[in-house]
Every structure is written in structure tokens, then in C-alpha cells.
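User: Working on a comparison across species. This one is Histidine kinase from Allorhizobium taibaishanense. Can you predict its structure so I can line it up against the others?
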Amino acid sequence: MRILLVDDNNTNLKLLTRLVKKIDRCEALPFPTPEEVLSALPDLDFDVAIIDYQMPVYNGVELYTEIVRFEKYAQVPVVFITADLDMTTRMAALNAGAIDFLTKPVNPVEFQARIQNIVSLTVARRQLAEQAEWLRREVDKAVSELRQREQEIIERLTLAAGYKDPEASRHTLRVAAYSHAIAREMGLPEQFCIDLKLAAPMHDIGKVAMPDTVLLKQGRLTESEYRQMQSHAQIGSDILAQSHSSLLQLASEIAASHHERWDGQGYPNRLAGDAIPLSGRIICIADNFDALTSERPYKQAWSYERTVEHVLSRAGTQFDPDCVAAFERALPAIREMMEADRREQAEEAARKTAAPPLGKIA
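Assistant: Here's the predicted structure for Histidine kinase from Allorhizobium taibaishanense:
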């Protein structure tokens, strides 16, 4: 335990140094002037400070005020030594952060008893701080493991949802990436952006309840089939709604709201404006952008330029204007992700074409 001693009287400083050395496991750090202490900061390490109140240039309170400007010393206990019994002096010391006083001339027995108590309290506080830090690390570890399990559940459910339609799986991952880019451009908290990216692939999970005749139809849906397909939003939300996982709860929110419109003409609940969860407003743009720029059995893919113009033109009607503005700022990143995905698909198709048929060896 290192104890800082500051006293401009050399005799007093030597006495304090000897008294500290008699305390078990304590080391004295004597300084004759406040200026020398200040010049040694912030590299000086000590656990308790014992400071004379009356000193030239800086009195004890003024010195301690300068010391605690450094955050590392903020919790260090300080004891002031003074011959002044005036209450004003003592109140100034207490307001500065003093936890005890010693009166000159210092009584050796009293000094050792008081300082031993302070040392014991300091050791106990340090042990509590170490235990608190250990508990914090253990909690962080448990939360991280839980988050990893939640993420794995989402990834497995996403794979299951796209099992019949591999392109649907790629769609969900692109939507997640685009949504993350939009959220970051909105200046949203990083943890929310990360959670949004993890939960976004579940936005169409309700399509697992759609019959193959509707889900995989090679052509436009009839009005009846379209209404049936619309039910996937509420079904997806219901599938995920009762989970205790915060990520799955977010995914449920997204599933229910990603087809709502800013003007209230969406589905399933015809929510409008800020009544639509922010997560749903962001996913709505990413989902529409990807759907329009992707080829479907019933349509050709729109060009990047045409799709961007379409999204921007619908700010304030279909889409949240603030989300559209963030989408526009995120376009360089979104386009890069879109083109990278297309290159990956082309390379994958080329590998499949080059692979020899089963049963034949080149």
C-alpha cells in the first residue's frame, strides 16, 4: 500500500515517513513541496494521500484539487494534517474530499490507528472493486454466449425459411445488410444497428406457412393468392412474438411492420407515420429496394437507377422521409454490397457449370 506524504516541514515529513513504515505492508512516498507532487503527476501511483494543510504556494486543499483533476486519483482517500481547529478550514477540507483529519503535533499512536483503519478500508474497497469487475466480466461473458445462441437460432430459422427457395435466403441477407447501412446513416446506436442486422433476415419467416402453390408460383399471384401471401407478415410476427429473446422480439416487430406504409395504406395493421416501429420503417425500404432490383419469376429486375428514383419519389407516402434520406446517404455502400452479391452469385453459378456430372470422373 503506497501512501503519499506531503509536508513542507522536513522534521514533520521525516516523522510521518517513519510512522508509515511501521504500518504493515505500507510504503511511504514523501514529498516536501506541492510543486514536486504536481510535476510527478500523473505517473505517480499511491493508494492513500496524507497532506499538510498549511503550505506555501498551494495549501493542502488547493493541491488535492489539482491532484483529482486526474481521474485515476478520484477515489483515493485523503487525510489532511492541520494545526488549525477553525471549522471553516475543516469544512473546506471536507468539501475537497477529505475523509479524516490529524491535528498537529501528530500523535504517533493516533496516527497509526487512524491510518491503519484507512488502509484496511482501502484494501476492502479494492477487493470489492475487483469482485465487481469479475462479476461484470462474468455477466458480459454470459450475455455474449446468450447472444451467440440467439444469433444461431435466427440463422437456423432463416435457413429453414429459405429451404424451398434459395434466392429467398439471399434476399433476406441482402435486406439485413442494406438495413444496417441505413440505420447507421441515421446515427442510431451501434448496438441497435447490429441487432437490426441480426433480426432482419427473419422479416419473411411467416412465408413458411404459405402453400407451395402460392410461394413458388411462376407468375403473378391472383387477388386471392396475394391476400393469402399478405398474411405472412402477421404469421411471422406470431411465430416469434412469445420469445424471451430480445433479438427474436425485434424480429417479431419487424415481421409485423415491414409492409406497413408511412401513409397508413400498408398491412397488416394499417399503421401510419411514427406508429410504425422504426425497425419496420427501415426494413421496408431495404426490402422494397432489393425486391425491385432482383429478378422474379413474374418480372425482370429493375435497374439500380430506376429503383433509387422510385424509393426517393415515395418519401412521405410509402416510406418514412427520414429513412429515405438515410437510404440516399447509404447508397454508395448499398450499391457496393449489391454488386458484390451479384459477383458472388455469378461465381457460384460458374462453379456449378464447371463441376462434372455426378458419377463421372474427369
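For your comparison, note: The chain is about 60% helix and 5% strand.

User: Helpful, thanks.
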